[in-house]
Structures are given as structure tokens and as C-alpha cells.
What we know:
The protein is α/β, with parallel strands linked by helices. The chain has helices at residues 7-14, 35-41, 45-48, 53-56, 66-73, 118-135, 161-173, 190-199, 218-226, 242-245, 261-273, 299-304, 310-316, 333-348, 357-365, 371-385, 398-410, 415-433, 438-445, 449-458; strands at 20-25, 30-33, 77-85, 91-103, 106-116, 180-183, 208-212, 250-254, 275-277, 284-286, 290-295, 319-322, 354-355, 390-391. The radius of gyration is 28 Å and the shape is globular. Residues 137-146 have low confidence and may be disordered.
Amino acid sequence: MNDVFIRENIYEILDYLDEGIHIIDKNGRIVYYNRFAQTIDDIDRDRAKGRHILEIYPSLSEETSTLLIVMKTGEPILNVEQTFINYKGKKITTINSSIPIKSKGKVVGALEISRDITQVKKMSETIVDLQSKLYKNSEKRNKDDKEKGKYNFIDIIGENKKMLALKSLALKASDTDAPVLIYGETGTGKELFVHSIHNASSRKYGPFIAQNCAALPSNLLEGILFGTVKGGFTGAEDRQGLFELANGGTLFLDEINSMPLELQAKLLRVLQDSSIRRVGGTKTIDIDTRIIAATNIPPEEAVREKILRKDLYYRLNVVNLEIPPLRERRDDIPVLTKYFIDKLNMKLKKSVKEVSGEVMEIFLSYEWEGNVRELENTIEGIMSLYDVETIEVKHLPQKFKKHRDEQKKGEDVSLTELLEETEKCIILETLEKTHWNITRSAEKLKLPRQTLQYKINKYKLK
């Protein structure tokens, strides 16, 4: 065998992984831990080696240990949450994938890959518990004392026609209990609309709870949303989920396109039946919770890429709000700039009056990939560093000066070159939106297919 693949080298390589690797033999005895597994389990691997797995993990049994189960069945178990108490009494939660090791058709051992989510689970459950305490006696509390969304429609700054029409539509949506689906790039202000809809609705005195679906592993997310029943799985306790906590109010699910498809199916049933079932439980619980969901990619694209179920998309898309990026509402940049300067003068105790004309020209031509949030952060960064009345070009971060220099170079370009560069950018953007489907791109650009193919070759687009 090649020297690269000798056992010692493989073990050394495994020690550099940031996931735990744990191997047992056919008798259930531990034969290997990598360094990360040792850290997760808080165990001396040299002392554990050669001992039975249940001796080291007394809280597990033959029925609950994923390693021992795959030894019996010969079938892998993938991405399962497991909570156990190690021999030091420390409670640990991991996401495990357990795989049988076979030789000549017989199971001779098992390997487990573990991802530590102990702190994530603890923090998530703490948040849910705090929210539960907050709303426990909500029906007895004074309406004005209750927690609610932070923003109202007055906090959405802008005079752009698209934004004004969007605010009008969102205000109408607040008069209903219909699900709302919001799409907007990162930093466009999706949460402003969500909070405002809740605070303008009849649910404004009810709970407002937000959960980013990309922030938690799928196994944890299910328990956080639906709640858990004690004994439903190893380490499970009786705990309300966010659907129950948001009862009578609004639950905001951000980046819903990051939610696993099987969990999306359960969400669809909640929307259809207005009831949930806790993880590990059999009892059906009726809920009255309004769902507002958001995506950071176009929802139609998410459906096409099979990361958002089509049936869920149609069920959520009763009211659709598409928030334009800042580059499509450049006429709002002066208004937003003034608003942020005034806001930050109060926060930072400064007395900035304005940005110079040249700075505003740069702001108006800049692409703002981070959208409104990037504009606010840029102004805050400058005002934190400088005590001036007028923000000049010299105060801007380097990327804006570079952008200005590139613009000046562009002024020397001939009209023909400028038109060709513009055409090239439009074609490339359209191709990327259609995932390089030439026929669909040609239709969008209103060009013959052959002409588009010629221009792709001309501009050497790839």
C-alpha cells in the first residue's frame, strides 16, 4: 500500500478535522477517537480506548446509541440529533451520522461523525424559555406593556415610487391574517416591513417572534419551532415551540429557503390546519399564529433550485412583497443619507450637517451591494472617526475613492466602447439570472438566439 495511506497517517489527518470521528469494533469497544471528538466529549481518548462505549457513555443504551444501532442493522443513520451525558456528568448534544464498517459482507465495526451543537442548542432553548416566560401570562397583562415589533411604517425611509407603492401594499396586508412572503437582498430592510405589518395589524398586542432558519441545524430548528415532548427522544424535555409562543401574534421566519424540505412540508401542514404537533408527541395543538416569511434570493429561483417547496411557495405567496435593492432606488440615497446623518448625530453626539456634492455623486453611482445597511454602516464609520461638519471624499473608505477613480477613467472611453461594455454587462446579468439558458436569455433580451450566441462569443463570456 502507498505510504500515504498507512494507518498512522490517516489518523493524523483525521486529527485536523473540525468534526468528531469515533470508531468502535464489532464488540462495541472504542478503537479510535480523533482529537475533535475528544474535545466534544471531554474525554481522555487514551483512557477510553479499548473500553465498551456504554461504559464511557452510561446515559446511552443499546436502544439509543446510534453506533450500536447501526452495528445491529447494518444500515447507516444520517444527521440525527443525540443528547447524552458523559461519564463526567456533562450534558452534550451532537448531530451524528453513523455508518457501519463492513468486511466481506459482515459488519465489523461502526464509525460516527459528530458535530457539536451543545452551545447552539442551549442558547436556542434559553431564548425560547425566556420568550415563554415573557408571554406566559400575556392575556392578563396590560396591552401597552407587551413586547412587540420594533418598527413602524414611519421608520421605512424613502420617497421612491416603488417604495411608496410597497408601503401601501404592506399596509393593506396588515389588515388581513394572510401569510406574507417577502423577498429582498441582504440589507434592503425586510425586517422593517415585517415589524411594521405586525404593529399595524390587529395582532399588534400579541407576541412578535422572529427566527432565522439558516441560524440552526435542521434537527434543532424542528424542536425550536414545534416544541418537544419529554421522552420523545434522548434528552428531550417538555418545551413549547415558537409556533405556540407566537399564538395570537406573528411568527417571522427569515431565510425560509434555508429550511430543510422535510421541515417545509410540516410548515405547510401548519398553514393548512392551524395546528401543530410537538416533536415526539401525539397530541395536536391548535394555534392562531400569523406567518410572515422572507427569502434573500428570488422565491421563484428558490423553487427552481428545489430549495423551496412549490406548494409551500404558493401557500405563503398570498401577499408578495419584493423590496428593491438600493441601486434600483438611487433617488432615495440623498433622503437616506440625511436621515442617517441626523440619526447618528444623536447617537454619537456629533454635529455633521451634510456630505459634499462630490461625495453624493459617488454615493449615487456606487453599486451598494450591501444596500441600505451598507450606506448606514458607511456613514456611521465615517462619523465615528471624524469630527467634521461636511463629509468630504478624503473621509470616505478606500473602496469609494477607487470607485471614483474608475469612473474618471471611464470618462475617457469612446461612446462605442461604453455602449459595448454596457451591452456586455446586460447580457451577462441576464445569462446569470437564467442560469445560462440561451433560449430564455434571448427571449428576455428580445434577440434572436443566433445573435445572442454571436455576442456571447464576441465578448468571450463564460
